[in-house]
Amino acid sequence: MSFNDEAVQFTNDDASCSKSFAIQRGYWNDPYILYFYKQTERKSPEISIGYYARVHSIRYLLKEFIKSVNRNCQIVSLGAGYDTTYWNLKDENLSPRSYIEVDFPNVTMKKCRAIKEQCDLLGKLQSEDDDIQLSKTEIHAFDYHLIAVDLREIKQLEQKLKACFIDKNLPTLFISECVLVYMDVDCSENLLKWIAKEFDKPAFINYEQVNMNDRFGELMITNLRQRGTELQGVRACQNLQTQVDRFEQNGWNHVECMKMIDVYRNLPQVDTQRLEKLERFDEKGLLDQLLEHYCLTWVSKGSQAFDVSEISIRNM
């Protein structure tokens, strides 16, 4: 494992800390995050609002996908970290046939420990009379799997997914949040190409940086580099077109991409007004600048695949 790999894994703690603070301040509700990450530190309102837009929009698309196929689908969360979506879907009776989370062993080990220690988490894993298989770094239950693998090792990833009884003929949604950008572009493109080739009905939701060639983007790159984190895949994050090209050039034929500032502006006005009144909020310009540098891309492949054109983030 390289120094950059270790630094990338620490970004999971950063994201979890930001989410935990925002949830405690009332930006959205999630009863499960504190089982994985209890420490919080104060974050600025624009950070909390940005995370709300991120979580809300990804879960909107995810739920629309699940409902469109009557839950007869699989979800694969790449670089899942301490994400709690599986448990929240359970509470909403929107569980897919299988939910698979993938991350580095050091991350899955901590998540395994938290799940084992909390009855509220462990109790929601369906067993269907089968024993839940628990190891130091992995969990296998009837409809939930947590696996430890480096996403750059595609052969190993494929083997691990087979152990989860993944069905390549079933509609399968892959989710990545600020994951591909930490991989060399060749590695991320190989991953996208493999998914498009191997799965019959794949879809993909990708959240990450964009517009990284301006002054704000350069500062973001510099700040992360000073913390030991290199954005190895930043070449694909120059603008919306490079984000689209990355998928279209690797086997995907239905691609939509939107800057998060436009996602935020598309939220119901009652939501944005509530968010901006939760705390003293004077830096609207800073929020706009932050949201200009992240984007949401939702993708599918093939005429028989899930058609992303049927879902519009504009209808949230």
Give the overall pLDDT as a whole number. Answer: 91
Highest-level CATH class: Alpha Beta
SSE pattern: HHHEHEHHEEEHEHEHHEHHHE
Lateral strand order in the biggest sheet: 3-4-5-2-1-6-7-9-8
CATH architecture: 3-Layer(aba) Sandwich
What is the name of the CATH topology?
Rossmann fold
Which structural category fits the helices and strands?
alpha/beta
Largest sheet: 9 strands, mixed
- Count of individual domains: 1
Note poorly predicted spans.
none
Q: What radius of gyration results from the CA coordinates?
A: 19 Å
State the share of residues found in helices, binned by percent: 40-55%
Relevant terms:
316 residues, alpha/beta, Rossmann fold, 9 strands, 15% strand, single chain, nine-stranded mixed beta sheet, globular, 13 helices, 45% helix
Walk me through the structure.
The mean pLDDT is 91. The relative contact order is 0.14. The chain has a 9-stranded mixed beta sheet, sandwiched between helices. The longest helix is centred in the first third of the chain and has 24 residues, at 45-68. The protein is globular and about 55 Å long. 45% of the residues lie in helices and 15% in strands. The chain is built from 13 helices and 9 strands. It has helices at 3-24, 33-36, 45-68, 85-91, 105-117, 119-122, 154-163, 185-198, 215-226, 240-248, 260-266, 269-277, 284-291; strands spanning 74-78, 98-103, 133-134, 139-140, 144-148, 172-177, 202-209, 254-259, 294-300. It is of the alpha/beta class and 316 residues long. Helix 8 links the parallel strand 6 and strand 7. It has a single domain (3-315), classed as Vaccinia Virus protein VP39 (Rossmann fold), CATH 3.40.50.150.
